[in-house]
Amino acid sequence: MAKRRANGEGSIRKRKDGRWEGRYTAGRDPVTGKAVYKNVLGKTQAEVKEKLKAAIEKSAVRPVSMEHYTVGQWLDAWMENYAELQVRPSSYKTYQGFIENHIRPALGDILLDKLTAMDLQRLYKHLLESGRVECAESRNKPKGLSVKTVRNINQMISSALNCAVEQRLIPANPTKGCVLPKLEKKEMKILPPESLGTFFEEARRSGVFELYYIDLATGLRRGELLGLKWNDIDLDKGIIHVRRQILRQNGRVVEAPLKTKNSYRNIAIGADAIEVLKGMKQKDEYIFPSPFGGPMSPDSVLHMLQRVLKRAGLERIRFHDLRHTFSVLALQNVVDVKTSS
User: What's the structural domain count of the chain?
Assistant: First the structure.
């Protein structure tokens, strides 16, 4: 009969062949959740007791999975069994893009317990220099990914490897040995109120007046603006219901949930914004559709903004800076179609 020991100390028994055996739990398989058992053998009980103690101590710092995962296999298991339960659907799709476009091609075949900080460092360096996936929207963009995107990829990998450490598949997380470039804080800019007339005049000539007017009148994020549908607007009450956003994921323009519960909100709009909306033709369920129907690409909106600014002779700003402009305009109460356009 096996001699029971305290939790974490295993058990010892004498086998029918006369030898002594010590059994202990070496962890759990991360996919099935089942315990992984191992044993040691010896001629005497004292010998097995010493071997069992050493084996348990060793298992606390070494991989114990019944399988030898590659990085790609572990990321698949982590995505299915952990990430899918923990992150938002939009983040999950973003993670899928990171894995398929950037991580798997470079690191997917490396054994998980052989992955080093240097492997990851080389990947991040490559991504910063030439990691952008080629597509129509990226033709005029830098070849490398942004610092923010690379840091997000590192954060995702770190989460997956932390889980591998907890499952005792690897002794330590190699992302802790990586050095990443710091994010540069971009200076906040606004579209000067005195330039609104020039901006709106050029936007009207370019056929995008309504798009940018509504954004400046509401302070919506780019994805939220493009996600607006006509049934989100109550023109009688002057209310916009913000219910979704439009994102580019894995090269496709998709409709997605908003980031947080607080992002689902109602926005009151003034008489002039209502007038602008009433003057628009309803060509699609989306208020600002693409020329081919369906949601407009977020990249297209940014490119249009830069063209309008350039033609109007105004300083280049980010689309996000329009939200800062909205805050200033709201304080100064100068968003008025009649005086600004």
Answer: 3
Q: Could you tell me how many residues make up the chain? A: 341
**322/219 Cα distance (integer angstroms):** 7
Long-range contacts of 17-22 (CB under 8 A, 24+ apart): 19/43, 20/44, 20/45, 20/47, 20/48, 21/48, 22/48, 22/49, 22/51, 22/52, 22/55
Structure tokens that stand for 21 in this block: 């055996």
- With beta carbons less than 8 A apart as the criterion, state whether 267 and 216 touch: no
CATH of the domain at 135: 1.10.150.130
Whether 41 is covered by a domain: the verdict is: yes
User: CA of 101: how far to CAs of 95, 154, 164, 274, in Å?
Assistant: 10, 14, 22, 43
Domain containing residue 313: CATH number: 1.10.443.10
For CA atoms 265, 149, 159, 33, the dihedral sign is positive
C-beta separation of 321 from 313 below 8 A: no
Single pTM value for the model: 0.60
Lowest mean pLDDT among 112-126, 210-224, 251-265, 327-341: 327-341
**Of 191, 196, 251, 260, the residue nearest 224 (C-alpha):** 260
